[in-house]
């Protein structure tokens, strides 16, 4: 059974036009004009149970709108969607028991009461039996190290502490699907790492399906084997993260530090016949650019066999550069994206 099944999903919004100047404001007061904006444009994808999928795109690409439709907050304009076999906006009462949601910029905890009191209220909302709730809570508190925070008001928590509590709140009823919308926004690297480790462990041990939207591509690299990329309301890429790197990366750079000055001519001779290029950084250091079509091991073996090497470093095009190149090209076409990556 699929955790999420989306077919030709569309969402239109009716947005007011604002006319300029005082006279325009007066006209708007008595007679408003509207225009239609299509935020999500006939997208389709399927997510099997137990998968961690990254859902990425620039601001305004339609990520949050999609999440809101998948969680039943918004009703689609057209198309079909099922989550855990339910249509979210129709079967809301049954549907919500199987999902957990964390919005990084919104809280489901009550601001002025203790964290444990918020958890108790959520237990009643989701109708979780007391014994089951206690067992689940103890497990989550231990794994996320929240023991000292339970009696503090939410307003006295740091952002990192609050986000860990938000995760617990979303998991108290043991949902099979977890929707995360910017869960690590504004957090320091230590807290981000703790949250990533927890999510990975939970997915492995409990088989929880996770749909993650984020601008932090390190979250994607740490957690996701699959990426769905959105641009202007359309899916422009849906596939594996490794495949994304292989197809769209410009290649690898290998930095060699030599024991003695090595002429560029000698380096070019060592790699003759390979479609590679050299850049000299100083008298002891040079970089070799190796496109994906060329074997890195063969290029390295030739250089190591013909020169005295002190140190070697390998640099890959990182995911941020690849994704930025795809957005700038406006296409998931590999050649167009590679040109943007190469020029960035």
Termini separation comes to 42 Å
Question: Can you tell me the overall shape?
Answer: globular
The largest sheet has its strands arranged as 5-6-7-3-8-9
Helicity range = 25-40%
Counted beta strands? 13
SS field, number of helical segments: 13
Enumerate the spans where pLDDT stays under 50 for 5 or more consecutive residues.
Answer: 334-344
Radius of gyration computed on alpha carbons = 25 Å
Major beta sheet, specifics?
6 strands, mixed
The ordered H/E elements are: EHEEHEHEHHHEHEHEEHEHEEHEHH
Outline the structure in words.
The protein is an alpha/beta fold and 344 residues long. 39% of the residues lie in helices and 29% in strands. The protein has 13 helices and 13 strands. The strands form 3 sheets. Strands 5-6-7-3-8-9 form a 6-stranded mixed sheet, with helices on both faces. Strands 11-12-10-13 form a 4-stranded antiparallel sheet, covered by helices on one side. The chain has a 3-stranded antiparallel sheet with strand order 2-1-4, covered by helices on one side. Strand 11 and strand 12 (285-290) form a beta hairpin. Helix 12 crosses helix 13. The protein is globular. It starts with a strand and ends with a helix.
Q: Any descriptors?
A:
29% strand; Rossmann fold; single chain; 13 helices; four-stranded antiparallel beta sheet; alpha/beta; 13 strands; disordered C terminus; Alpha-Beta Plaits; 344 residues
């Amino acid at each position: 059974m699929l955790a999420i099944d989306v077919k030709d999903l569309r969402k239109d919004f009716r947005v007011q036009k604002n006319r300029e100047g005082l006279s325009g404001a007066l006209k708007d007061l008595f007679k408003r004009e509207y225009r239609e904006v299509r935020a999500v444009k006939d997208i389709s994808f399927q997510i099997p149970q137990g998968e961690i999928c990254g859902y990425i795109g620039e601001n305004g690409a339609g990520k949050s709108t999609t999440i809101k439709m998948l969680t039943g907050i918004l009703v689609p304009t057209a198309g079909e969607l099922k989550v855990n076999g339910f249509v979210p906006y129709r079967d809301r009462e049954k549907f919500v028991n199987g999902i957990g949601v964390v919005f990084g910029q919104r809280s489901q905890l009550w601001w002025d009461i203790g964290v444990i009191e918020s958890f108790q209220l959520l237990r009643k909302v989701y109708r979780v039996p007391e014994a089951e709730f206690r067992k689940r809570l103890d497990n989550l508190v231990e794994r996320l190290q929240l023991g000292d925070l339970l009696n503090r008001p939410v307003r006295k928590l740091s952002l990192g502490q609050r986000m860990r509590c938000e995760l617990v709140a979303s998991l108290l009823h043991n949902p099979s699907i977890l929707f995360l919308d910017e869960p690590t926004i504004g957090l320091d690297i230590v807290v981000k790492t703790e949250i990533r480790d927890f999510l990975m462990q939970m997915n492995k041990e409990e088989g929880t399906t996770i749909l993650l939207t984020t601008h932090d591509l390190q979250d994607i690299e740490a957690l996701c084997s699959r990426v769905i990329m959105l641009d202007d309301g359309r899916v422009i890429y849906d596939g594996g993260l490794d495949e994304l790197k292989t197809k769209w990366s410009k290649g690898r750079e290998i930095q060699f530090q030599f024991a003695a000055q090595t002429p560029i001519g000698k380096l070019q001779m060592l790699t003759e016949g390979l479609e590679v290029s050299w850049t000299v950084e100083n008298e002891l250091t040079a970089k070799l650019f190796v496109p994906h079509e060329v074997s890195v091991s063969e290029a390295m073996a030739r250089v190591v066999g013909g020169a005295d090497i002190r140190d070697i470093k390998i640099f890959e095009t990182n995911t941020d550069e690849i994704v930025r190149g795809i957005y700038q090209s406006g296409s998931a076409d590999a050649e167009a994206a590679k040109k943007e990556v190469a020029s960035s």
